[in-house]
Amino acid sequence: MFILFVFKSFKIPTYVHYVLSFFCLIRIAAFTLRIVLTASESAGENIGILIADEVLFGVGFFGLLYSAYTLVLNLESLSDRPPTTNPIIRLTQNRRMFRLALLVAVVIGVVAASGSNGGLNDNTSSALRKTSTSIFLVLTVLQAFQTIYLAQTRISEPERFKRMQKSFGTRHGIFILVLISLLLLIREVFAAATVDDHVKQNNEHFWYPLLALPEILAVVLYAIPGLVPSKEELRAKEREELNGYGDMKMVAVQP
């Protein structure tokens, strides 16, 4: 998947493809560390490797979740829907706030993981870990809400999405993102439910199907052709909206 997204990054250079390439690279490193931890008892006792493993999985999820969030907003911008007036929806569509909240969750998670090496007491480290996981969970729920909201609009107002009919990924993009959102929710609910139980969280019988597999399936869905709109499509739609706004102003000032 790493090679595929690197190829897509050159063919269709977009932020989402760059982030997913980086995510795949991080996951390769994280899975390599996990194999080392599983295969060697001495490595499993090395706190540095354990910290690196935890940090890599937190940073990687940032990319996966923000890609889904970005795609939902991009697909909405390509539709003919007028901007929402709902203050709650407008707040959840603030990219800077969402990205900042994700960064805060990652930083807190890194501090919690690093502090477990003696820099922080167990209670503080545990509290920080819970805070980081809670932020990730809330943001995952918000992203899922955004996706379902747009999917509902896609069903109730199909005429506003007529331009999005070029390929399978374009036609069904929002419903693919609903599946991705569900997978991310499964992953994060498991992480939140086991935040206080590292033994259970790292148990391979739970970890692979409830944390690793949802991420892998989400990445596979991201690779569906046509799902990620190009910068040219987004810019063309933006120019169209600006031209339309300019025409409206000209009509308004005519006597």
TrEMBL record:
<protein>
    <submittedName>
        <fullName>Uncharacterized protein</fullName>
    </submittedName>
</protein>
<keyword id="KW-1133">Transmembrane helix</keyword>
<feature type="transmembrane region" description="Helical">
    <location>
        <begin position="55"/>
        <end position="75"/>
    </location>
</feature>
<keyword id="KW-0812">Transmembrane</keyword>
<feature type="transmembrane region" description="Helical">
    <location>
        <begin position="206"/>
        <end position="228"/>
    </location>
</feature>
<feature type="transmembrane region" description="Helical">
    <location>
        <begin position="173"/>
        <end position="194"/>
    </location>
</feature>
<keyword id="KW-0472">Membrane</keyword>
<feature type="transmembrane region" description="Helical">
    <location>
        <begin position="96"/>
        <end position="114"/>
    </location>
</feature>
<feature type="transmembrane region" description="Helical">
    <location>
        <begin position="134"/>
        <end position="152"/>
    </location>
</feature>
<feature type="transmembrane region" description="Helical">
    <location>
        <begin position="12"/>
        <end position="35"/>
    </location>
</feature>
